[in-house]
Design a protein that fits this description.
It is a single chain. This protein is an alpha/beta fold and 445 residues long. Among the domains are: 3-117, OB fold (Dihydrolipoamide Acetyltransferase, E2P) (Beta Barrel); 136-287, Rossmann fold, CATH 3.40.50; 395-435, no CATH class. The protein is 47% helix and 20% strand. The chain has helices spanning 13-27, 72-86, 119-139, 167-177, 199-211, 238-245, 263-267, 275-390, 393-398; strands at 3-4, 9-10, 32-40, 53-58, 61-69, 94-105, 109-117, 157-162, 186-191, 219-223, 251-254, 270-272, 403-406, 409-410, 422-427, 430-435. It has a five-stranded mixed β-barrel. A five-stranded parallel beta sheet has the order 9-8-10-11-12, with helices on both faces. Strand 13 (403-406) and strand 14 (409-410) form a beta hairpin. Helix 3 (119-139) packs parallel to helix 6 and helix 4 (167-177) packs across helix 8 (275-390). The protein is elongated and about 170 Å long. The chain starts with a strand and ends in a 10-residue tail after the last strand. It is found in: Cytoplasm.
């Protein structure tokens, strides 16, 4: 009961909440079909329940927001049917048409309990998104951009966006590396999520990494397998498709489904239904380069053999002609050589005789000249010997002179002589050692 005061009536929060609860329960007794964007599914795996956040947007701004409840049993039923019809599970960001009751709880507030979801409506929304992406890409001139890029004659260097544990990726490598022709491919894996909402930024991020090193690769291959057509709506996203269309080298897709081609596949340079088919395509490109080369090689070998045979015959003819001509020419040269040899022998004998006579005259003249020079040099040598003998110190000593040395040096002046110094005096017939006791200096003007 509300508290009454003289000038006002006061309600407790619980009373207000219960009043709202009664009002809403009385007003909203039916089950309603409601359209909204499921911003977040909020699925809790431990309980199986979902608490979707529902919003309505206008010009990109949220104008209404409400929480809802999707109990585990209803979720399993709805999600199963959703996947059968749309090929997609319930997920964040899709627009849904759902059946719900409206209730208010004093503790948890206003909420919608979702009883059913019409997958056909969401399928239409997914198709609408696909068509919008296609229209925008065509308007921007990007739809054929990647398809118009030059393709390597031998697509050897591959940048692969996939999940390392994916069966499709495993099949792709098995076929590629096990080809019976021995073609060798260089593969670099760039791991990414390949289905669900998170696949869009994951793939775009890896494309950005590859673009920074685009010159290192010939093609990019997006490989996904094992999922069938479930979870493919992300490949209709404009941002992902645009990143593929704008990519600087050819992008190949093999995401494992056979119908309902996605926008990303449409704008890619080549779309294969499965990873295995994509591997076969790359091997075939090697074939397209290798087979003409092999054919050209065989043609060259064949033409070379024909040319060698023709040249061999021609060479044999030349050889026979050369042998006959050589024998004839050799005979002529031998005769000419005999005549030259006789003339050369006679001329050589005459020159040798003249040379011997000249050599004898030269020998006699040389002997006369050498003997005269020897006599002159002997006279000069005798005179020099007498001069040297006169300069011999012993001859000087014999004439009465002497040589005085101090410390092994000849003494010429008294300048460096001190009292007590030991002097050695050399005479013609011996040697005298003396000690200096007195020094007298003679001054010469």
């Amino acid at each position: 009961m509300p508290e009454k005061l003289p000038d006002k009536i006061i309600f407790s929060l619980g009373e207000v909440a219960k009043s709202i609860q009664r009002t809403i329960a009385g007003r909203y007794k039916q089950v309603y079909w409601i359209k909204a964007e499921m911003n977040k599914l909020n699925h809790y795996t431990h309980s199986g329940h979902c608490y979707p956040e529902l919003v309505e947007k206008k010009e990109g701004k949220v104008i209404a927001e409400m929480r809802s409840i999707l109990w585990n049993g209803d979720y399993q039923r709805i999600n199963q049917r959703f996947m059968e019809i749309t090929r997609e599970p319930l997920k964040n960001g899709i627009t849904i048409l759902f059946q719900a009751t409206i209730s208010y709880d004093p503790l948890y507030g206003l909420s919608l309990r979702i009883l059913d979801i019409d997958p056909a409506y969401s399928l239409g929304e997914l198709e609408r998104e696909k068509q919008e992406s296609l229209s925008r890409l065509k308007q921007e001139g990007l739809f054929y951009a990647n398809k118009q890029l030059p393709f390597a004659a031998v697509p050897k260097r591959l940048a692969i966006i996939s999940v390392e544990t994916s069966k499709g990726y495993s099949d792709f490598l098995k076929i590629l590396n096990g080809n019976p022709w021995g073609y060798r491919f260089e593969q670099t894996l760039f791991p990414a999520l390949l289905q669900g909402d998170k696949s869009i930024p994951s793939i775009i991020n890896q494309l950005a990494h590859i673009a920074q090193r685009a010159e290192e690769y010939d093609v990019v291959a997006v490989i996904r397998g094992g999922g069938g057509e479930v979870g493919l709506s992300s490949y209709n996203n404009y941002l992902l498709a645009s990143a593929i269309a704008r990519f600087p080298i050819p992008v190949l897709t093999g995401i494992g489904h056979s119908t309902n081609e996605t926008v990303s596949e449409m704008v890619a340079y080549k779309n294969a239904i499965t990873p295995s088919e994509l591997a076969d395509f790359l091997i075939q490109r090697f074939h397209q380069f290798a087979v003409p080369i092999e054919q050209a090689q065989e043609l060259i070998i064949h033409k070379t053999r024909q040319l060698l045979l023709a040249q061999q015959d021609s060479l044999n003819e030349y050889a026979r002609y050369f042998r006959l001509h050589s024998v004839h020419l050799l005979s002529q040269q031998q005769k000419a050589l005999g005549h030259h040899f006789i003339r050369l022998t006679i001329a050589s004998t005459n020159r040798l005789r003249q040379g011997m006579q000249t050599l004898l005259h030269t020998q006699k003249a040389l002997q006369t000249t050498v003997l005269g020079d020897i006599k002159d040099h002997r006279t000069q040598l005798t005179a020099m010997e007498k001069s040297v003998q006169l300069l011999d110190p012993q001859q000087v000593l014999n004439r009465g002179y002497s040589i005085t040395r101090i410390n092994g040096q000849a003494l010429k002046t008294t300048e460096h002589v001190k009292k007590g110094a030991i002097l050695e005096t050399f005479l013609a017939s011996g040697q005298v050692t003396s000690t200096v006791t007195q020094i007298s200096t003679t001054t010469h003007e």
